[in-house]
Prior knowledge:
The protein has 164 residues and is an alpha/beta fold. The protein has one domain (2-10, 32-151): Response regulator (Rossmann fold, 3-Layer(aba) Sandwich). The chain is 30% helix and 17% strand. It contains five helices and six strands. The chain has helices spanning 28-34, 55-63, 77-90, 101-105, 123-137, and strands at 2-7, 42-47, 67-71, 95-99, 117-119, 149-151. A six-stranded mixed β-sheet has the order 2-1-3-4-5-6, with helices on both faces. α4 (101-105) links the parallel β4 and β5.
Amino acid sequence: MRILLVQPAPFEDRRLGLENTVWMSEPVGLCSVASMARPHDEVRILDLRVDDSSTLPEVLRTWRPDIVGTTAMTTDAYQALATLKCARSVLPEALTIIGGHHPTLMPQFFRTPFVDVIVKGEGELVFEELLNRWDKEKDKASLVGIQGAEVLHDQRHHDGRKSP
């Protein structure tokens, strides 16, 4: 299976925050999640903090991953959603996954038509189980019941409202 993990771009170009100047490092969280892939999986990590934003749709069109995942701190939440919205528009059949601190604390923010799975808590073990089940059945229903994963079916909020 082909898996694309995407580190979202900064909220503002050339923003001078510690995370973009002093602390800029490899996307450790995504590297850790990628380590859970099986030997036969192909995994790419795309870091939109350093790559041009046009890289994402190009990689989606040419490489055609089966799964697109991203992560979000609170400061990355909108960019993470934009990443998965792009993935859904280019590859409607790909499974889209969001994890990280913000989805763990505010999963309701990510209940949209272009997010399939919200991972809450530590994503490594959840990701391994998601891969095994998705590879076997390619059906979101097969993902239900994985501890730490909220599988979105009908894209409705719990109060019955349609997602925006």
